[in-house]
Amino acid sequence: MATKEMQVVKGLDIEKYMGRWYEIASFPSRFQPKSGVDTRATYTLNPDGTVHVLNETWTDGKRGYIEGTAYKADSNSDEAKLKVKFYVPPFLPIIPITGDYWVLYVDADYQYAVVGQPSRN
């Protein structure tokens, strides 16, 4: 059975999207510890239009984090389909890991959002 492609936000105001976002719920990610709490992401606009990404979570009272860069998957599209690139391990940026970051919904005041990826995983 074919699955319809997810609808994404069009015309995302990237400047309004910048700031700190707190994770309320998520599906487990292989990159996050299962016992992580207080997970958050901080987005900062870079001069070149890309976004600096800082993902943080706390496990047993210790902060874990990874930094990366997000950018539009298609610079000619108004859809909020982004790519995020992280380097693993973060202290030795050798191996880039790139993933999809699709903004599926954001409220009018940019207070909450739903984010996904085309694989739906």
From TrEMBL:
UniProt domain Lipocalin/cytosolic fatty-acid binding: residue ranges: 12-120
Signal sequence interval, chain numbering: none
An annotated GO cellular component: cytoplasm
Pfam annotation, one family: Lipocalin_2
Gene Ontology process terms (BP): lipid metabolic process; response to reactive oxygen species
Xref: PANTHER family: APOLIPOPROTEIN D (PTHR10612:SF34)
Name of the protein in question: Lipocalin/cytosolic fatty-acid binding domain-containing protein
Provenance organism: Salvia splendens (Scarlet sage)
